[in-house]
Amino acid sequence: MSAEQAAALIQHGDHVGMSGFTSSGYPKAVPPALARRIEAANQHGNVFRIGVWTGASTAPELDGALAKVGGIELRLPYQSDPTCRTRINAGEMEYIDIHLSHVSQFVWFGFLGKLNVALVEVAGVLEDGRLIAASSLGNNKTWLDLADKVILEVNSAHALGLEGMHDIYYGTALPPNRRPIPVLHPSTRIGDAYLHVDPAKVVAIVETNIPDRNPKFTPPDAASERIAEHILDFLEHEITRGRLPRELLPIQSGVGNTANAVLSGLDKGKYKGLTAYTEVLQDGMLEMLKSGTLAFASSTALSLSDEGMREFLDNIDYYRERILLRPQEISNHPEVIRRLGVISMNGMIEADMYGNVNSTHLMGTRIMNGIGGSGDFARNAYLSIFMTASTAKNGAISCIVPMASHVDHTEHDVQVVVTEQGLADLRGLAPRQRSKVIIERCAHPSYRAALQDYEDRAQALARSGRAGLHTPHLLREALSWHERYEETGHMLPQ
Amino acid sequence: MSAEQAAALIQHGDHVGMSGFTSSGYPKAVPPALARRIEAANQHGNVFRIGVWTGASTAPELDGALAKVGGIELRLPYQSDPTCRTRINAGEMEYIDIHLSHVSQFVWFGFLGKLNVALVEVAGVLEDGRLIAASSLGNNKTWLDLADKVILEVNSAHALGLEGMHDIYYGTALPPNRRPIPVLHPSTRIGDAYLHVDPAKVVAIVETNIPDRNPKFTPPDAASERIAEHILDFLEHEITRGRLPRELLPIQSGVGNTANAVLSGLDKGKYKGLTAYTEVLQDGMLEMLKSGTLAFASSTALSLSDEGMREFLDNIDYYRERILLRPQEISNHPEVIRRLGVISMNGMIEADMYGNVNSTHLMGTRIMNGIGGSGDFARNAYLSIFMTASTAKNGAISCIVPMASHVDHTEHDVQVVVTEQGLADLRGLAPRQRSKVIIERCAHPSYRAALQDYEDRAQALARSGRAGLHTPHLLREALSWHERYEETGHMLPQ
Ligand SMILES: CC(C)(COP(=O)(O)OP(=O)(O)OC[C@H]1O[C@@H](n2cnc3c(N)ncnc32)[C@H](O)[C@@H]1OP(=O)(O)O)[C@@H](O)C(=O)NCCC(=O)NCCS
Ligand SMILES: CC(C)(COP(=O)(O)OP(=O)(O)OC[C@H]1O[C@@H](n2cnc3c(N)ncnc32)[C@H](O)[C@@H]1OP(=O)(O)O)[C@@H](O)C(=O)NCCC(=O)NCCS
Fold first, then answer.
1. Probe ligand 2: pick from B100, B368, B385, B394, max atoms within 8 Å of CB?
2. Residue ranges of the Acetyl-CoA hydrolase/transferase N-terminal domain (chains A, B) (predicted)?
3. Alpha-carbon separation of residue B128 from A458, B124, B162, B198 (angstroms)
4. Residues of B279-304 as b/e, b for ≥16 C-beta within 10 angstroms?
5. Span A459-470, mean pLDDT?
6. Which residue is closest to A415 within chain B, CA to CA?
7. What is the predicted ipTM?
8. CA-to-CA distance for B274 and B270, rounded, in angstroms?
9. Which chain A residue lies closest to B53 (C-alpha atoms)?
């Protein structure tokens, strides 16, 4: 069937569960065709808007195209598309930012309403109807199970060599009938290698041959390299203290530059036989698998550069032994993350002096991307590490602030904060002790005095009896840095 | 051995792991003796301060006595004692507020330093050295396993009928060797009925005969009864919609008045055969067990009024079939809470318009109690409900505010907010939709207009391009209500 014909099966008001996780495995033909249909409807004065549910972020052909024509009524659970972001922050599109591990169960519970259509990219279809999944799994199993209608995009650009690399758990159940998820190691297989779909629900199959739009791999900048060094020193220190085994514990690493820098640092170090239990597998991990630093990686998506993808495809038999792709309800499952004792490393927008972390909002009001899986990992990790450069926008923004303008990870869930300036180990520290190390170790020198001044005056106010000394703050000034940035373009008076 | 002799075995600087969870099962003789010793040391000009680690809150004989003499250097993971609170907020005592499920593993991981002494109350000692645990388990297993020295208080005031009511999991391990926690139902036994201790470590046994200082049971006030009605209506509605089974899912309920009102409402309703998976079992649940509304309850502590305790003891054989007490690492384990699909109901200090919840800090700076188990439950629950009266201090404080002055549960973890005014179901709502229902349904009428005005002006600012419309805020005013309360004693201009 053509993409246009398939797109015609989607109606205004539908909730559509689409495949896609970090620009891999997203449907590539139907969303643009749907965008054209929506545009035509708009031109005839008809409203045509749908709910777009995915695994996580996708690519311009999906989020970008649909957001551009104003076709998205509601987006969940994660996005990182510039057009979506603009629309959301302009109030033209609703966005629900959900822990990635919560999505599938919320749909099963009936909390998000009916799923009308599943639009899922696959790598192939077996004779018996089972599906070879593509380069990401995300929520595909859930969409196929729960949607009224299913549209498949069968993308021959995906190597059929992906076959066998998926592990799709079919034991998920609703409470009170849930059982333990029997993953004991990143490599434990607990499911089926194929996706299942009820053939009676399949209303369209669209054939495509379009590669994933792989992210560019940019070499790490100086700040990322410094952050990586601090983390590597810290891990070594933990090994020396007997708090981590030599082969560490399974690594989770967010997307981006800094994450790749840490991985590449690990790869250059003396590590062997590490494992990863993560949601995205980037070039950094592929290199580690190649060198043997990493023995095994479990993920829900492959997010490789073109070069990484070539390496992967050229040696797919090697990698098939060393990679498992799982549904995100398993890759991000609190039960499994906690059992395995994952070392979690994620980026952030800002942290405050007390270790509360903002992963999602710029200046408290504008969404950036979303919380993604960072909460699933941070709360349940053995070690939860958050990292950022100490400043943004050429130093006009301090990423260490008096009070976070939005909180995604509370003081209870943040154990280590790292910037290029240094690393603050917050374990076992009470709030005022935390603010001391965060200001000293993590703040940029150009903000350190201002932070110290805020802290001193907040403590003085508390000592005068007009506030508490547990978590001292000057309520009037707590968000003044953000306010000043909005008004003057710089967080400090110039 | 006398309490004085035992107290002499504790040294300045020691970390002492004490039993105790909501005024049950705390050591009753040694802490007061230790407080006297500390006072004497102070009078001789000697510093004597220890780290006090417990299950959760305790009683005046422990927290109160030690805090009064300034004997606590560091307290974790939860407290609710007035003297402790004053000391913490005066900067005289450090306090680390930790998710209850994290405590035991952090100690095992070595993140909090060495545990020098375990001071644990038990109900009895068997001939073979195994211990009959008391009315709470908390972290006792961990303290006994990890401390260098063990002091036992054997309290004959605890009914020996408690024997057999505990289920102490001895399968906990460190990653990478952890296995699934095999609890499939609140009644599943996975452990041993007795605590174990290495006899070589036991340096003192002190005999006592002092009942737990049970909390008074006060009949629910009008606001609590209204909150309970809203929750009961909501649960009925969920059953009607097919989103909850008739016998619900296991209930978790925080301590306090409102919690008891909800339970008593459930008890009057048409429910039968419910279950509870919770950390504290209060009078409300005992009554439900008696009436048959509740078929089974799993908890880590019994927190009964004197009257409740009498009922319990008089019918202990009946209750022994229907209650299990577990270590808090199991009662609060994310894995189990998520698997069972708990309905979680907890109190809060305040919620903001967008559904971020503050459970711990008054006016952003003063600690009240701590996060306790609320995060373990809310994040992993099937349904996470937070409740409070809409105002405090005779209306001078709105518990619905523009921005929470401290965040313990983020917008990602809060599904339902309830006050006596009404219930806001936040599932599937984006931030501006959430603020609409929270203001309309939950805010007190005397604050509704001011909240609406804030929201309107925040949206107008965002529409002007000077902020984002995803989560509109006026950074300058976001915390001004709290500031005004601190300055004038009322959140609104009078
Ligand atoms: C927080 C997050 C946005 C950081 O991403 P990153 O790529 O490392 O961040 P960068 O430093 O490149 O910053 C991204 C942008 O935010 C801006 N920024 C960074 N810190 C900022 C701050 N404190 N205030 C305002 N803007 C800031 C940067 O200037 C940059 O802007 P630009 O795109 O206009 O140049 C990203 O990690 C994220 O979305 N995290 C949440 C999801 C998550 O953690 N998932 C984990 C599993 S994958
Ligand atoms: C949040 C919490 C303190 C509410 O407890 P509660 O007994 O229902 O609350 P109350 O309404 O009686 O209020 C307690 C006090 O806080 C004050 N208060 C309530 N809301 C307030 C607010 N928004 N700002 C300032 N003070 C407030 C009350 O006036 C009262 O003060 P008082 O003791 O001086 O009279 C309590 O639920 C808690 O500690 N929660 C965190 C731990 C938890 O959730 N555990 C769950 C598993 S048990």
1. B368
2. 2-207
3. 56, 12, 18, 11
4. bbbbbbbbbbbbeebbbbbbbbbbbb
5. 98
6. B111
7. 0.98
8. 11
9. A428
